[in-house]
Specification:
Cytochrome Bc1 Complex, Chain A, domain 1, alpha+beta, 11 strands, 2 domains, about 425 residues
Amino acid sequence: MAGVSRHQLDNGLTVLLKEQHSAPVISWWVLYRIGSRNERTGQTGVSHWVEHMMFKGTGQFPGGDLDKMISREGGTWNAQTSMDYTAYFETMPADRIDLALRLEADRMVNAQFEPEEVESERTVIISERQGAENSPLFWLGEEVRAAAFRVHGYHHEILGDQADLETMTRDDLYNHYRRHYMPNNAIAVAVGDFNSADMLRRVEELYGTIPPGDLPKLFQRPEPEQQGERRVRVERPGSNHFLEVAYHAPAATDDDWFKLAILNSVLTGPSGMGGGSVDNKTSRLYQALVKSEIAADVDGSIMPTIDPYLYDLVATLRPGRTLEEAETVVEREIERLRNEPISQAELDKAKKQARALFAYSTERVTAQAFWLAFAENFESYTWFEHYVPRLEAVTIQDVQDVAQRYLRPQNRTVGWFIPTGNGATDYEGEE
């Protein structure tokens, strides 16, 4: 990606700028280096809750007016909390971007966390958790993750545990905000129709006077190597059986991550870079599970993360089919990858799909700005620039090599979701 310039203000704020003059639009992101991976037991979900509180406003920008202010200027805005970060953005007409710059500078320092707002949002946060619980895949995914990670903060869901959401206080939230929301713990990115020198000057005016803080000592606990297969079984109301198989996988900074991304494309179809989709009907597991009518759907994903995370496979079974037979097919296809090289045609198709999906997923300024901030958070924005070339460098031998090293039974957690109650079919399989 040509034209990205990186700057660091005296107070430690990292600023990335990329001019793109194809449309009179600018996307502005501010990402903080704090996510759910850094949360201690008792405060799980605090990063996500703080994200919600940032929309309650400041003295200068009252919460009730913010939506109107943004929409009146023709813009959109939102935020997201991840395992590895919390981020906020506005995408505005180019001549209206100053509102976004001023808003985020003010929120970095002056969010209020009024006690009554905290209590009101507690209800919203708990409702969000309970809404997620309506999905069998939420329950299964939470159990698989908790079994796969015994020590590391990836153990818990971004939404947090119900017990913590019921007991966290206003001071817990505000102290989290004060510890982590500071310029030297943030990455700011602008992509769009602007002059870089003018934009940098305005960013320095608004953000340069914000004092840096003492960088927080992030709560981090490395996960020990798994010593054998782990299995979980979830039995809850539902209408479908689901199979999840998760292997420990490397961090995004590891070359092996790109090799596993190509492996996943061969096995289930390519994962998107923040949007878009490519047909996966020729992938190995689609052919083996969906075409044979054992499963209605199968998907795989490998997320780019700061620390080693998971390579995840999920299958939705058809009525009358068993988890045992689905698992047998998955195991057979995994062993094929471990024991036999993939074909040149499969490798070429995986790379072609990756290029197409990358282009589709990153054509808008909002997506480009996000990925620059995202990559800078765990390594450098150049990770995003080099994404396609690093995938292109993967060889047939690379794919077999990572299959042999990572897709071992001892390195996986297997989860079964077995529906109970109305709508469930009797399950006659054996574990």
